[in-house]
Amino acid sequence: MPAVGVALPLVEDVISWVKDSFEDCGVMAVALGLKYACVALDTGGAGVAYVFREWHSVPGCCGGLWRKSAFELVDLARSWNLSEASIGTAAINAFAAPLEYEVINVSRRIAELSKECRKVVFVGYFKPLLKYVESPIVLEKRPMPGVLPDEAYEEVLSSCDLAVISGSAFVNKSLERLLKASAGYTIVVGPTTPLTEVLFGYGADELAGAVVIDPGKALHIVMEGGGRHELGGALRFVSMKSRR
Predict the structure, then answer these.
(1) How many other C-beta atoms are found inside a 10 Å radius of the C-beta of residue 169?
(2) CB distance 187 to 204 below 8 Å
(3) pTM for this structure?
(4) pLDDT digits (tens, 9 = 90+) for 210-239
(5) Which of 35-44, 49-58, 161-170 is predicted with the least confidence, judged by mean pLDDT?
(6) What one-character-per-residue DSSP string does 68-103 give?
(7) Which domains does the chain have, with CATH numbers?
(8) Is-contact 218 235, C-beta < 8 A?
């Protein structure tokens, strides 16, 4: 039995956006790897999402997920079994390839945004990006030298100039409260980020996510335990900006 619970409004609104904007379809394959999940649809679309290894558990209906419809997988984004939620988010991302976007280099974008910011906060430990920012503040669930516990998010984000939030916060249901707490320009980053304008209504200013351009390659990389670095050749990194 899938561990599906009552979701927060942001998750519900993203699920509704998918179902209102697209037609349901079949699922070609589902992969749950060490670092990412991947869902490929029979329409040719595919999406990926981060897997929280510390909360990893076998999803309900294991062995039969690929027989479900795409919308049934999308519904798993509500789940508090975070392996299921990763699969649900990957299914959302398989639909959510925007028609209008800007191809970007994420590192350069963060460096550009941070130039005139006194207080830059990263929610998630983005090691490759930290070197582009002078004296960044990092919030992270895992205890690490030089970072703050994520419980400090309200105090830290309420006075920031720039917030860089991991898209994986959508999987563990924390994205809504993080967006609400941020007082500065807020960019949600990473391949897990759902590329939908729904997030702008909750406080995001920019989405720096990824479109899967080689579904077969993405599936194999995920099945073989690969992560963000290995997936690079199967993804195109893109940006969407709020029009408000």
Answers:
(1) 24
(2) yes
(3) 0.93
(4) 999 999 999 999 999 999 899 989 999 999
(5) 49-58
(6) S-HHHHHGGGGBSSHHHHHHHHHHHHHH---SS-EE
(7) 9-95 (3.30.390.100), 102-212+231-241 (3.40.50.11590)
(8) yes
